[in-house]
Specification:
The protein is of the alpha+beta class and 713 residues long. Among the domains are: 5-273, Alpha-Beta Barrel (7-stranded beta/alpha barrel); 508-712, Beta-galactosidase, Chain A, domain 5 (Distorted Sandwich), CATH 2.70.98.10. The protein contains 20 helices and 25 strands. The strands form four sheets. Strands 15, 16, 17, 18, 19, 20, 21, 22, 23, 24 and 25 form an eleven-stranded antiparallel sheet that branches. Strands 1, 2, 3, 8 and 9 form a five-stranded parallel sheet that branches. Strands 10-11-12-13-14 form a five-stranded antiparallel sheet.
Length: 713
C-alpha cells in the first residue's frame, strides 16, 4: 500500500503601513501577480493565502483586477483565505480591545470581498504568548500557524509535528499548526526533488500526516535573486507541476478543512516564542552575536537534539533594546486610551482606523528586515497615531494648554508631556531633559523621531570583514539561491568605516559643554570631549500655567570640567507654549556657581527627522544671509555668525525656523546608521543633527542667557 501525506501551504503577503508606493508596485510585479498567475495554471494545487490589510487596501485601490482573480480562485475552492489583525500588529503588544476589534474588522472585510468565512489566522511574525487563545477564540478563530520551534520548546519531537494540536487559555480552545523549518528553508531554495524526498520520508500508510509550510509570499519573487529563481528559471512552476504529478501520494489541502476533518495530535501549552531568528534579534547585540555563534557550532556538530532546546530572547525585549520602540509603543497606548473614550460614532471608527494603522508591527522591531531603522515606516506610524489623537481631541477647546507629569514610558521615572492643539512635547526629565517627541499636529508628524546609533550583532561581522560576506549552514550548499537569513550581505563597499555609536540618546534640547578641541567630525561620530554632566543626566521641572501661556522650567545644577577641576554650573531652560500657536520658545540661563571665572563652549543639540535621506531634493536647509553650498537637509557643514536657520521638507509641507537671540556657530550633519535589511547592510538616514553653539566667559556668579525660538510651518 502506497504511503500518503498531505501538504498544507500557507502564503503570507504583507507590506507595512507607510511603505513607498513603488515598493508595493515592484512586489506586485515580482511576487504577488506571478503567484496568482501560476496558481491559475495549476488548478489542482490548493493552498491558504493571507494578505495583510495594508496590502489588501493597496491592491483594492491600485490593482483590483488581481483581487478579482484571487476571488475566482477562492470560489473554485483552490485558495483558502486566512484572516489576521487588520494592520498586522504584533498581537501581544497591543491592548486586548484592539486585538479582538482588529481581527473582527478584517474578517468582516474578507467576508465582503471574497464571500468566505475565514477560520484561520496568520499571526504576525508568529509572536505567541500563552494568553492569546482567549482573544483568538473571542474573535472567532479556529486555527493559527506557528513555528515548529514553539512546539520543540514544549518537548515535542520532530516526528510529532505532522498535524495540529489543541491549546487553550481559560477554557478557550484554538488549534495550532507547526510550520516546518525543513520546508521553509527548502522551499524554494533546494531542488524540487529534495522537497519531495522530505515529504515521502514522512508519508504514512493511513495518510493522516500533514506537513505545513507557512512563510512569506515575498520570498517567491520579492527577496534578492528569487524572481529569477522562482519564475525565470521556473522553480515554482516545476514545484507545482511535481505536486500535481504526484497527487496520488501527496495532496495539497486547505488547513481549515484539515482542522475540521482530522483528529488533533493532542494538547500542548506553548511558551512565549517567535521564529528562532526573531528571538535571536530580540537579544542585546553582544548576546545575540554569542547566541548565533553557539547555534552554528551546534548545527555544524550535528547536535540537533540540543538545538531543539536553544532559544533566544523574548519579543517584548525589543522595547528594552530600543528605547525609541518603547516610546512609540507607549505613545500608541496613550492614543488608544483617548480614542476609546470617544462616543461610539463614525468619528470613532475613523479614529480607530488611524490608531490601528499606528499599530502595524514593522517598525516595532529589527532584524534582517529594516524595522525601526526604516525612517519612513517609523514616521508613518507616528503620523497615524497623531491623526488618531487629533480626531479624539477635535472637539476640545482650540486654545487649551494641558500638561501631565507621569511615567508614560513605564521605566520608573517621570516624564513631562505638554500639549496644545498645535503641538505635543514629550520631555524625558531623567535623560538631559531631552525633547524625545515633538508632534507637529497640523502635519501629523513627529519631528523628533530620530534613531540613535548603537551596536548591532551584525556589526561585528562588518568590522571584522568589511568587504566580505559571511554565510551560515542553514541552506544546502547546492542551493542556487540563498535565504535572507543566510549570512551578512553588504550593499556598500567598505561599509564598516561608517560605524559610529552614540553614548547618549539623540533627541532634541540636549545641553552640551564641549571641549575646546572638539571638531565637527568628532562630534558627528560621537567621539569627542564632553566637559559637562548634563547631556544624559536628570533635570527637575516646575510648571507654570495661565490662560495665555504654559511654561516648563527644566533645571540641573551640575558641573563643568574647567582647567582640571569640576566647577558647579546651573543650567535652566524654560520652554514656553502659547495656545494654538505653532511656536516654541526656549529661554536658557546658564550661571557660574563657582568663585573663579570660567570659559565654556555651550551647545543646544536638536535632532530632527525630515525624511531627508539620499539628498532628497525636497528636504532643504537655508541660512538667511549666508550661502549654503549643499542645501540638502542631510548634508554636513559648519557656519559662523548664525542668527537663524530654516529647514524643512516641501513634500511633507513642513518647515521649522530656528532663531537665536545671539549669533553663534552652527554644525549640521546627518545621523546615519549602518542597518540591515533583506537586501543587505547599508547606511540609512535617521535624522539631521543641528548644534548651534556659543563661547561663554562667565565670572563668579555671572549668568549668560539665550532665547531660542522655533516656529513650525
Amino acid at each position: 500500500m502506497q504511503k500518503r501525506i498531505s501538504l498544507g501551504l500557507a502564503i503570507h503577503n504583507h507590506q507595512p503601513v507607510g511603505n513607498f508606493p513603488f515598493v508595493f508596485e515592484e512586489l506586485y510585479k515580482k511576487a504577488y501577480e506571478p503567484m496568482i498567475r501560476l496558481l491559475e495554471r495549476h488548478p489542482r494545487v490548493r493552498l491558504a493565502m493571507h494578505y495583510s490589510g495594508p496590502l489588501l487596501d493597496w491592491l483594492e485601490a491600485e490593482r483590483p483586477e488581481l483581487l478579482e482573480r484571487l476571488a475566482g480562485l477562492v470560489r473554485s475552492g483552490q485558495v483558502e483565505i486566512m484572516t489576521g489583525a487588520y494592520y498586522e500588529p504584533i498581537l501581544p503588544m497591543i491592548p486586548d480591545r484592539d486585538k479582538v476589534a482588529q481581527v473582527a474588522s478584517y474578517t468582516a472585510q474578507l467576508r465582503r470581498r471574497f464571500g468566505c468565512e475565514p477560520s484561520g489566522l496568520w499571526l504576525a511574525e508568529r509572536v505567541w504568548e500563552p494568553t492569546l487563545p482567549s482573544h483568538l477564540a473571542q474573535a472567532g478563530i479556529d486555527y493559527v500557524v506557528l513555528d515548529d520551534s514553539h512546539f520543540r520548546m514544549s518537548g515535542i519531537s520532530d516526528d510529532d509535528l505532522f498535524g495540529y494540536y489543541l491549546t487553550e487559555d481559560q477554557n478557550n480552545l484554538v488549534k495550532v499548526f507547526p510550520t516546518l523549518k525543513p520546508l521553509r528553508y527548502s522551499i524554494p531554495w533546494s531542488e524540487v526533488g529534495t522537497v519531495l524526498d522530505f515529504l515521502r520520508a514522512h508519508a504514512t500508510e493511513d495518510g493522516r500526516a500533514i506537513a505545513v509550510m507557512g512563510d512569506d509570499g515575498e520570498k517567491f519573487g520579492g527577496w534578492p535573486g528569487t524572481f529569477e529563481h522562482c519564475y525565470e528559471r521556473g522553480w515554482l512552476d516545476n514545484f507545482f507541476s511535481a505536486l500535481e504529478q504526484n497527487a496520488d501520494w501527496v495532496e495539497t489541502v486547505h488547513l481549515g478543512r484539515w482542522a475540521r476533518e482530522q483528529q488533533n495530535l493532542g494538547v500542548v501549552y506553548l511558551p512565549t516564542a517567535s521564529y528562532p531568528e526573531m528571538m535571536e534579534w530580540a537579544l542585546p547585540a553582544k548576546q545575540a552575536a554569542l547566541y548565533e555563534r553557539l547555534t552554528h557550532e551546534l548545527a555544524n556538530k550535528g547536535e540537533q537534539d540540543v538545538l531543539s532546546f536553544m532559544r533566544g530572547g523574548f519579543w517584548r525585549n525589543f522595547l528594552v533594546k530600543y528605547p525609541e520602540i518603547n516610546a512609540m509603543q507607549k505613545k500608541m497606548m496613550v492614543v488608544h486610551d483617548k480614542v476609546w473614550t470617544m462616543p461610539d460614532t463614525e468619528d470613532r471608527e475613523r479614529a480607530l482606523r488611524e490608531l490601528w494603522k499606528g499599530q502595524c508591527n514593522c517598525p516595532y522591531w529589527h532584524g534582517v528586515f529594516g524595522g525601526i531603522y526604516l525612517t519612513h515606516i517609523r514616521a508613518a506610524v507616528f503620523e497615524h497615531l497623531i491623526k488618531a489623537e487629533n480626531a479624539a481631541e477635535a472637539k476640545l477647546d482650540s486654545r487649551r494648554l494641558v500638561y501631565r507629569i507621569e511615567d508614560y514610558d513605564k521605566d520608573g521615572r517621570e516624564e513631562a508631556i505638554l500639549e496644545s492643539q498645535a503641538q505635543n512635547l514629550y520631555l524625558r526629565l531623567s535623560d538631559g531633559g531631552g525633547l524625545v517627541e515633538w508632534d507637529h499636529r497640523g502635519r501629523n508628524f513627529n519631528l523628533a523621531c530620530t534613531m540613535s546609533r548603537r551596536p548591532e550583532a551584525y556589526h561585528q561581522l562588518l568590522a571584522a570583514q568589511p568587504s566580505q560576506q559571511s554565510t551560515t549552514s542553514d541552506t544546502p550548499a547546492s542551493s542556487s539561491s540563498k535565504t535572507i537569513h543566510d549570512g551578512i550581505r553588504s550593499k556598500q563597499q567598505d561599509i564598516g568605516r561608517y560605524l559610529a555609536y552614540d553614548w547618549y540618546r539623540r533627541t532634541c534640547l540636549l545641553d552640551h559643554f564641549l571641549s575646546s578641541a572638539t571638531r565637527l567630525e568628532d562630534f558627528a561620530r560621537c567621539s569627542y570631549g564632553e566637559d559637562g554632566d548634563f547631556v544624559n543626566q536628570p533635570y527637575t521641572i516646575e510648571i507654570a500655567q495661565s490662560s495665555d501661556e504654559l511654561s516648563a522650567q527644566l533645571r540641573r545644577v551640575g558641573h563643568a570640567w574647567v582647567d582640571g577641576q569640576f566647577l558647579p554650573l546651573d543650567v535652566q531652560k524654560t520652554i514656553r507654549l502659547l495656545p494654538g500657536a505653532p511656536d516654541l520658545t526656549v529661554d536658557y540661563v546658564i550661571t557660574n556657581l563657582s568663585n573663579i571665572p570660567i570659559d565654556l563652549i555651550f551647545g543646544s543639540e536638536w535632532n530632527l527627522n525630515l525624511l531627508a535621506g539620499g539628498h532628497n531634493p525636497d528636504a532643504y536647509v537655508e541660512i538667511p544671509g549666508q550661502p549654503v553650498v549643499e542645501p540638502y537637509a542631510d548634508a554636513t557643514s559648519e557656519h559662523q555668525n548664525v542668527r537663524e536657520i530654516r529647514l524643512g521638507n516641501r513634500w511633507l509641507d513642513i518647515s521649522v525656523a530656528f532663531t537665536f537671540s545671539r549669533s553663534g556657530a552652527l554644525w549640521r550633519f546627518p545621523v546615519d546608521t549602518v542597518s540591515n535589511s533583506e537586501g543587505g547592510v547599508e547606511t540609512v538616514y535617521q535624522g539631521t543633527c543641528l548644534l548651534p553653539h556659543w563661547k561663554l566667559h562667565l565670572g563668579p556668579g555671572e549668568s549668560w542667557d539665550l532665547r531660542l525660538g522655533a516656529r513650525l510651518s
